[in-house]
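User: Hey, quick favor. My workstation is busy. Could you predict this chain's structure for me?
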Amino acid sequence: SGGVILSTEQKAALQTSLVILQNDHKFHKVQLWGKITAVKDAYFIACGVGEGDELKERKFLYSQDCMKWCILPVLSESRHQICKQLSGRFIGDPSYEYEHVETKIVGEGDDAEEETNTVLVKEEDRLAAVINEIDRDATVVPRGAYIKTANGKVISNRSFEGLDTLDAKKLSSFFHFRITPNTDNINILAKATLDHSIGFLEHIENDLPKGCWVLQSERGSGLTILKSLLWLGYVAYHVPGTRKFGSVYFGTGEKNIDLPFML
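Assistant: No problem, here it is.
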């Protein structure tokens, strides 16, 4: 848990409410995705997975009391880009509105003048954008944990028995769990070495900036832990030789934009 502990009350509430959530929304499974700490309160995030495609049929929900859950909105690309420009801590109020000022030049030459436009963004929208970004950058799975069927659906691999101890110590054994390769942020070498036997996923070994992942193996248990330095608070784990793997994010929802200068 990276030192982050849920209270007994929160654990009990989550164990009850996530089961109800799964039944109410007819999800195949529901997982606690993480917790984003805000100035006033915190957002608990759950991920509901559909019966068909386990990669495409994923919905994110949030709660502030671990009992009542709201589905996060699906944002347009333009709205997502506006949200990405907002910075600082979350307030802790989904209805709170941020003011984003857009500036553009109207006219040409001597007639050119600056025009400003203020856009209001709800914290709920910003929360959806940040979760989407963390999930895209950081959610990883071990090699072979998922397969793509003949009809193109991504499902859990029933024959997956876990990585061996040696492979579990390699970054190349872990893959981004996202729909399309984020080719903007991977270099030419990474594009050339996409694992075509898996086909739909790319490994994290060549992620930029170099050194953005920390991989640790615990002696005795053999537990492998992956930590993201880009999104501080994201931790993934895998127990070699077993089907056990997962991840969680406990943080403020702020990207470590200084990382390239720290490595």
